[in-house]
Amino acid sequence: MSSRRRILVINPNSNEVVTEGLRQALLPLSFAQGPEIVCESLPDGPPGIETQAHVDGVALPLRRRIEAATGVDAFVIACYSDPGLHVAREGTAKPVFGIAECGVLTALTRADRFGVIAIKSGSIPRHIRYLRQMGLVDRLAGERPLEMSVAESASGEGTLARMIEVGTELKDRDGAGVIVMGCAGMARHRRPLEDALGVPVIDPTQAAVAMAVGTVSVS
Q: Which of 35, 44, 177, 203 is most buried, taking the most CB atoms under 10 A from its CB?
């Protein structure tokens, strides 16, 4: 009998509150016969990935972590900017999933046009560039910011109320039929946000890990 497969989910910031939120959000994807899902922070990362400098700065540490990993069958980079995704893929023969890529692709299976809740307005140009590279800008209904830090989105008071406000604007004003949460730190708010908005809400880390589970389970 083969040993249990293992998926390593790397939060590329050093915020353990965010990482614990990921662990809780991923519990529904863990089952006895399925792959083991392990979440960890990047100790050398910033408290939150909020700028292009942060994105660029964690790329090589992420690759080194992935190259050094043993007994891992798939990796998930749990940041909506997908930092280091391509350089990490060069460093391993194992599959590496980025949550932005997986979150958007999952959203496209639920509605014609999707909206994104960003943490800050400064994140939006970076996300738009990525969607342009993916050839999916025409499917974007809109992206609107919370104007919060990663830490605030993970544990701050009033975060859910603000997410409902922004999500309502994306749905009613921009015409989004599905909402993607544009930060791993928002993970714990997915279900109540979906209940409040009445449209599908995608947690991109759940989407990426679901793809990883399917991939390693049939390989």
A: 203
What pTM was estimated for this model as a whole?
0.94
CA distances from 202 to 183, 185, 219 (A): 11, 13, 26
Residue 132 token pair: 């342009």
Q: For the residues 180-207, what does the mean pLDDT come to?
A: 95
User: 26-75, pLDDT tens digit by residue?
Assistant: 999 999 889 999 999 999 899 888 899 999 999 999 999 999 999 999 99
Q: Alpha helices, DSSP H only, in 9-141?
A: 16-26, 52-68, 85-90, 99-107, 124-134
Please, are residues 213 and 199 in contact by the beta-carbon 8 Å criterion? no
Q: Is 13 exposed, middle or buried (0-12, 13-18, 19+ CB in 10 A)?
A: buried
Cα–Cα distance between 187 and 134 in angstroms, integer?
Answer: 24
User: Cα–Cα distance between 5 and 71 in angstroms, integer?
Assistant: 8
pLDDT at 1: 40
SS3 call for 49: coil
- Report CA Rg, the chain: 16
The four Cα atoms 28, 12, 68, 213 give a dihedral, to 10 degrees, of 20
Torsion of CA 145, 114, 179, 170, to 10 degrees: 50
Among 80-84, 123-127, 136-140, 155-159, the range scoring the smallest mean pLDDT is 155-159
